[in-house]
Protein: Claudin
Amino acid sequence: MANAGIQLLGFVLSFLGFIGLIASTIMAEWKLSSYAGDNIITAQAMYEGLWKSCVSQSTGQIQCKVYDSLLQLTGMVQGTRGLMVGAILLAGIAILVAMVGMKCTTCLAEDQEQKGKVALTGGIVIIIAGLCALVGTSWYGNRIAKEFYDPFTPTNSRYEFGKALFVGWGSACLTIIGGAFLCCNCSSKGSGKSSRYPPNHSAAPPGRDYV
Structure:
């Protein structure tokens, strides 16, 4: 029951991370305009995401514009897009695979060893998906920090971390931890298999007594 509980916990964490990755990728607030430094008084706030940029007026009106051309985007935005979309696809497929290998499902119930291997495969792919998302969000955040501390960057062109970055970092960590729980559960199951077959060479052969 303990192993099944760890497996279920890993699956829940992975699923929550998967939902968070989707939300982070869709969100437009990957970077927000910064007002640090000089006393800037402005009636609008700018923020950009992977798919569009938006301007929020002080009156509450928000205007967004989808990026016109993919080729006009910077390599950072294109690379982050690919990593996040790839992470979502891998996590979605891996969750379905892990669901087949979970102990609470009836799929492959007649072959427990194969069922454990399927769950292990799903856990490994989930970890890879989380690493892809972590690399994408960290790459994007590192570029924001570099431009912010660059003395040649104009003050009105500096940006800070947006909400989507924090959601992406948290979701990537949840995905990695959930996949690790699935892998640990399978490895603990495999380690106990050797005790099922104790060695038979410890007992000495019976002596032959002739009368």
Q: What stands out?
A: The longest strand covers residues 52-57. The chain is about 55% helix and 10% strand. Residues 188-197 have pLDDT under 50 and may be disordered. Strands lie at 31-33, 44-48, 52-57, 62-66, 159-161.
